[in-house]
Amino acid sequence: DILRHIHAKMTLRDAARATCASHAFRHNWICRPNLTFSLGTLGLNRNASRDVITRDLISKIDLIMQNHSGIGVKTLDIDLYSCDNIDFAYLDSWLRIAVTPGIEELILTLPLPSIVFENALPIISVYNFPCSLLSNGSGNSIQYLNLCYCTLRPTAGLGCLRSLTRLHMSCTRITGDELWCLLSNSPALVCLKLLHCEEIISLKIPSLLQRLRFLEVAYCDRLQVVESNAPNLTTFYFAGFLGQISLGGSLQLKTLRMICFRQTNIVCYARQNLLSIA
């Protein structure tokens, strides 16, 4: 138990070195609870070519994950932003291993979408996050979900994410209806951040989000409507083209910050439409 505690506190680089030196540490590796993978944590050369970075980062993460039991994972943080042309089968495999009941934090930062060709036609390749992983009991424990450059298509069968308090999505493909489905199953949500989510046209926050305090919506260029019925929202940040914004259900609002494009009189707009609820 002492060795397991020591091993869990090490950085991934130090943990890997200890594993090579000690059979006892090697056994503890398979149950390491916090897995954070990036160029820095794995000690890889940031100045290498993207092909080399992709090869080395994928191979190291895969070696670690294939030797992990999947038991007791609390945090999985994978940063592949510096990679090119990832085989998404690796990601599917890693998530199946680590996203199990008991996981609390899941952070995925993927590369910019790439162009692939199918039947001589160009197709944008974006990772489709497997929502089914959150329906097997893992959704009951997850507290923080952060997705960057993914596609997320939740359905009614998602189940309740009763512990989810923070949801951050950047450059994530999800529609307003799909987001509504996700939010409707996240009653404990406290913080919601949406950045560059281009498929959202109408963002509606259900009144059942009694604990939601912080809402940030930025650079979602197709967004036309923001409607919040969360009664205890205290902070709202917005950046983008100003459409219809209704915070009528947010009677506790204290902080309002807006950066609006092509809006000549934002102060007048705020007074007429928002100030009454602040």
Description:
It comes from Aegilops tauschii subsp. strangulata. It holds the Pfam family LRR_At1g61320_AtMIF1. This is At1g61320/AtMIF1 LRR domain-containing protein. Residues 64-278 form the At1g61320/AtMIF1 LRR domain. The structure is a single chain. The mean pLDDT is 85. It is built from 7 helices and 16 strands. The longest helix is centred in the N-terminal third of the chain and has 17 residues, at 50-66. The chain has 278 residues and is an alpha/beta fold. A hairpin with a 2-residue loop joins β4 and β5 (121-125).
Strand order of the largest sheet: 1-2-3-7-9-10-12-14-16
Which percent range describes the beta-strand content? 25-35%
Major beta sheet, specifics?
9 strands, parallel
Give the overall pLDDT as a whole number: 85
Distance between the termini: 52 Å
Radius of gyration: 21 Å
Q: Indicate the low-confidence ranges by residue numbers.
A: none
Strand segment tally? 16
Fraction of helical residues: 25-40%
Broad shape: globular
Secondary structure class reads alpha/beta
- Spell the H/E element sequence: HHHEHEHEEEEEEEHEEEEEEEH
Give the helix tally.
7
InterPro entries: At1g61320/At1g61330-like, LRR_At1g61320_AtMIF1, LRR_dom_sf
Organism: Aegilops tauschii subsp. strangulata
Protein name: At1g61320/AtMIF1 LRR domain-containing protein
Domain At1g61320/AtMIF1 LRR: 64-278
Keywords:
278 residues; alpha/beta; three-stranded parallel β-sheet; 16 strands
Secondary-structure blueprint of this entry?
Layout: H1 2-9, H2 12-21, H3 23-29, E1 34-37, H4 50-66, E2 75-79, H5 88-98, E3 105-109, E4 114-118, E5 121-125, E6 127-128, E7 144-148, E8 150-151, E9 166-170, H6 176-184, E10 191-195, E11 202-205, E12 214-218, E13 225-228, E14 235-241, E15 244-246, E16 255-261, H7 266-273
Parallel strand pairs: 1-2, 2-3, 3-7, 6-8, 7-9, 9-10, 10-12, 11-13, 12-14, 13-15, 14-16
Antiparallel strand pairs: 4-5
Helix pairs in contact: 1-3, 2-3, 4-5
